[in-house]
Amino acid sequence: MPEDMTRSALLVVDMLNPYDHEDADALTGSVEQIVQPVAAIVERALDEGVEVVYINDNYGDWSSSKDDLMEGALNGARPDLVEPVLPPEGVSFVFKARHSIFYGTPLEWLLAQKGVDHIVLVGQVTEQCILYSALDAYVRHLRVGVPRDGVAHIHENLAEAAFEMMERNMDAELTPCGECTLRAEGG
Length: 187
Description:
Number of helices: 5
Order of helices and strands: EHEHEHEHEEH
CATH topology: Rossmann fold
Helix content: 25-40%
């Protein structure tokens, strides 16, 4: 599809986190670095009319709601890492139970309904959910962008390897959040 026909969606992955898990201490230092760039790109996407979708792990609680996840994250160990990136009113929200945002979710259908052919992934964790989601997007013939300052990692060396794989094997666009390509319908 020609660049001028591209329609983007910003996908915010697993930012509603109570940080009460085994790797939380290793993760939060990296999350501290991405919170403001993620908040800024969400605001930019909304201002530009770009589709924004939050996708979050349900932590095995199949009776939870978006509000339950937000409350749990805000009452968790690091509400300062959650509050700036809470889902704005009116954005789509998808639950996931595994690493990939596509596995067992309606996300592929939602993106098709919106005419999206380019996704930008922000959130956590670079070497896990972001990497697997980028691969699943690539095999679905979606163009992928991953802002390096918009994704958090647990293990820096694995995150660097994940960036290299996403760029080399999935043709992912790796740019800062402020330079990331976002296109609204007809944009």
